[in-house]
Amino acid sequence: MDQLKQLTKSIYKTLYLALMLTGIILTGMSCKTAISDQYIDIDERSPWYWNYKGKTVLLLGGSWQDNLFNHPEGLEEHLDLIVSVGGNYLRNTMSHRNEGNVFAYERDELGLFDLNRFNEEYWNRFGNFLKLAWDRDMIVQVEIWDPWDMYEDHQSYGGWSHNPFNPANNANYTSEESGLPTLINYPPTGQPTEHPFFRTIPLMDDNALILGFQKAYIDKLLSISLRYPNILYCIHNETGEMVEFGDYWAGYVRAGAEQVGVPVHITDMRRSENVRSEDHAHIYDNPLRYTFVDISQNNAWSGLGQGHYNNILYVRERLSAHPRPINNNKNYGAARHGEEESVARMGRIIFAGAASARFHRPHPIEDPAMMYDKSDFGLGISPRAQKVIKSLRMATDQLDIALTAPMNELLSDREENEAYLLAEPGRQYALYFPDGGSVVLDLSHASGQWNYKWINLDRAEWSDSNQLRAGRNVRLTTPDKGHWIAVLTAII
Question: Measured in whole angstroms, how far is the alpha carbon of residue 56 from the centre of its chain?
Fold first, then answer.
């Protein structure tokens, strides 16, 4: 009997996956094969990087909104523009905070949400977005719970006062029945709050009523997202709530994927800007649950100059026993440290050996006519961001980046924050200068003649090639001030 049950379960899983993949084909994906070795995965040659469709991929991006799926106007053209400048990395919060967005649930005749009836427009937008990204070989990092939809009001429709789970906004339960308040008048913080939405799991409040609705929401999300091989999962956007809540949902997502035989990679994004904090350590120290990390908050207000870079190296060292990709899904704008620092962070992220870098959106811009603007909150996919992304792609395409590592120890006569080195000694070298400069590079591991050329991040154009002889220390000086990358390649 047990063997029969096991066989039945196996057949069911096989049929379920076949039906799910058939669903992909019916939505227009017959030209591509959705099998496990086509999924985004950790690179076998270097676990610090991602691999997609059998190739090492460095993830670069920038866009005008966090919740792109809920902004269908001009979406295809927006994605095409990102791809045209070398972008392949998208952020997507499951949010409803802007003008023109829709919510996940239908409303009744009184205007109240019914948590038992999903709004198909919301989910169709999500599926359409994932398909558009998949068609363009773009990786999407999906953030499931966004605290900015759960606390004080934020932008046009973000915040608890608008949220369908708020007892005042739905027809499914009262505040007394659910244990949820009707008013949350404080913002998300870096510390746990008393917000009961983030305490529903059995280890905490064991709120079966709300947990059931939360599970139904994620089940619906996974029924769409697991069809696509280009998805990374992040449980929260910058949460400070108890790590046990994130642990629960990470396990739930993984179990859902395992049910249909789909490989997934999951993390949780902590709100603390201190990457040495205890809650970040919880993510670092659980490599089976969290198979990559996201340290976006290092790119907020505290990470600056050499310290910003040192923080990333700290994380690499912290993960050294179980190396895995370090993502940076948000690189904030000029609000505190100026636009040049925002650009410099993109360079330092890559030259510290991280797996992804993306310009943050230009909050609070909501008008689609302004989707290529920038603000102090982020450069988005503004004209300057486009040049920087394109330059970084052009430079890193010259490298077999999986075989490189941060190696500033090969630099001398270097001032703090002057230059950063990625290298595979003797085979490939790249230098990034945030504001011009001149340093000495140890090429004693290399031999023969080498070419080197420069690219300015604001121009996305290569200089003419120059030559040098290796086997010794060599001084490299930027052509001018500004953001420059030099790439050195051996002449065969």
Answer: 16
C-alpha span between 278 and 198 (Å, rounded): 19
Quote the CATH superfamily of domain 407-490: Golgi alpha-mannosidase II (2.60.40.1180)
pLDDT at 174 over 90: yes
Tens of pLDDT along 13-25?
443 444 444 444 3
pLDDT digits (tens, 9 = 90+) for 55-67: 999 999 999 999 9
Give the Cα separation of 457 and 27 in Å (integer).
39
Q: Which amino acid is at 85?
A: V
Fold of 36-402: TIM Barrel (3.20.20)
pTM of the model: 0.93
Contact 94, 146 (CB under 8 A): yes
**Identical fold, 36-402 and 407-490:** no
- Structural element, H or E, at residue 372: none
Domain ranges of the chain: 1-31, 36-402, 407-490
119-144 CB burial, b ≥16 within 10 A, e <16: beebbebbbbbbbbbbbbebbbbbbb
Tokens of 295: 């340290």
**Buried b vs exposed e over 178-200: b needs ≥16 C-beta within 10 Å?**
bbbbeebeeebeeebbebbbbbb
State residue 431 phi and psi, 5-degree precision. Answer: -120, 135
CB 348 within 8 A of CB 65: no
The three-class DSSP label of residue 197 is helix
Dihedral sign computed on CA atoms, order 62, 68, 71, 73: positive
Average pLDDT of the residues in 211-225? 98
The token pair that represents 53 in the structure block: 């469709």
Task: Give the pair of three-digit tokens for residue 466.
Answer: 């120059």
